[in-house]
């Protein structure tokens, strides 16, 4: 079995990556082909790396202004597809490791921070509800493309590096979950994709000196226009809009509601049997609060079944 039959599954796994464990960054994920089908009993593992520059490191509820940072992230990941009540399903796990080198003003004084450590791990379970039955590799090779409706649940565990005495952390010290629906419709060599979901956050009871930080749900939509160049090779134009996420610290509501959008490009290329490379670029389009950054990414995947 050649890798091009599994390229869509590779894309789905690598699209789960995030930079840091703050709600705004979660919403800014661009994940083309997140609900595209693949054969069952396929395992993919690999390594992704991203470089981001701009306003990426500071949570909008902390008292830091005029902040900029460079972030280098390396993230191993693993995922597997399987049958769930005769439907195609998959799970994936990502554990990010990051270095943040940033500057900002705290109470009128310019300061610099450099942090290296492990971020919060992310587990995602997805199932295609319509248009994508569980297929063996042999059955999948002869299938016809069709409209797909999928659902997923992403869970972020508070197991990354966190210190309540610091303003900037790689972990968030709280659980977060994101239910999402995704629709994919084929038109010739094109796929039009639309996702809608929301992040829900547990409270952080040790926020910067033992304060209580709460965050309202953060709603996100994604649109992707994907073109299949040839089997295993595709390119996409990506767009996301996200809003909400207002925070409250010790009962004081902050003026940090997010109302932002981002656009990007993604390109996937099979390198050899069982190997694939994915390249991505994205930047902010409109930014009301927080993370106006530019990101470059690359990931390598190995697939077996």
Write the layout of secondary structure elements.
Layout: H1 7-14, H2 23-27, E1 43-54, E2 64-84, E3 87-94, E4 97-106, E5 109-118, E6 122-130, H3 137-140, E7 148-156, E8 176-187, E9 190-201, E10 204-207, E11 211-215, E12 218-230, E13 233-244, E14 247-249, E15 252-253, E16 258-272, E17 275-286, E18 293-304
Q: Keywords for this structure?
A:
3 helices; twelve-stranded antiparallel beta barrel; four-stranded antiparallel β-sheet; disordered N terminus; mainly beta; 305 residues
Which geometry do the CA atoms define? elongated
Q: What is the helix tally?
A: 3
The secondary-structure class comes to mainly beta
The helix content, as a percent range, equals under 10%
The fraction of residues in strands falls at over 45%
User: How far from one another are the termini?
Assistant: 9 Å
Major beta sheet summary? 12 strands, antiparallel, barrel
What is the strand tally? 18
What does this 3D model show about the protein?
This protein is mainly beta and 305 residues long. It is 6% helix and 59% strand. It has three helices and 18 strands. Strands 1-2-3-6-7-8-9-12-13-16-17-18 form a twelve-stranded antiparallel beta barrel. The chain has a four-stranded antiparallel beta sheet with strand order 10-11-14-15, with no helix packed on it. It is elongated, with a radius of gyration of 19 Å. The protein starts with 6 loop residues before the first helix and ends with a strand.
């Amino acid at each position: 079995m050649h890798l091009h039959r599994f390229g869509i599954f590779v894309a789905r796994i690598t699209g789960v990556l995030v930079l840091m464990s703050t709600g705004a960054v979660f919403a800014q994920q661009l994940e083309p082909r997140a609900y595209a089908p693949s054969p069952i009993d396929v395992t993919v593992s690999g390594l992704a790396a991203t470089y981001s520059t701009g306003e990426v490191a500071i949570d909008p509820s902390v008292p830091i202004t005029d902040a900029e940072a460079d972030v280098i992230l390396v993230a191993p990941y693993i995922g597997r597809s399987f049958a769930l009540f005769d439907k195609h399903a998959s799970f994936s796990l990502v554990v990010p490791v990051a270095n943040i080198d940033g500057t900002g003003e705290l109470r009128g004084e310019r300061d610099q921070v450099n942090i290296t450590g492990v971020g919060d791990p992310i587990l995602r379970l997805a199932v295609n509800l319509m248009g994508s039955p569980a297929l063996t590799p042999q059955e999948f090779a002869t299938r016809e493309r069709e409209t797909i409706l999928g659902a997923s649940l992403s869970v972020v565990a508070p197991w990354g590096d966190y210190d309540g005495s610091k303003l900037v952390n790689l972990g968030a010290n709280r659980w977060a979950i994101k239910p999402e629906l995704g629709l994919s419709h084929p038109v010739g060599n094109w796929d039009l994709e639309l996702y809608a979901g929301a992040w829900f956050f547990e409270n952080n009871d040790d926020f910067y000196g033992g304060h209580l930080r709460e965050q309202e749900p953060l709603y996100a939509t994604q649109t992707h226009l994907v073109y299949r160049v040839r089997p295993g090779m595709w390119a996409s134009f990506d767009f996301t809009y996200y809003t909400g996420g207002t925070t409250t610290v010790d009962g004081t509501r902050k003026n940090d509601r997010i109302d932002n959008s981002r656009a990007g490009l993604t390109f996937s290329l099979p390198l050899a049997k069982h190997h694939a490379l994915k390249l991505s670029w994205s930047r902010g389009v409109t930014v009301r609060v927080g993370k106006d950054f530019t990101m470059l990414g690359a990931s390598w995947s190995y697939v077996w079944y």
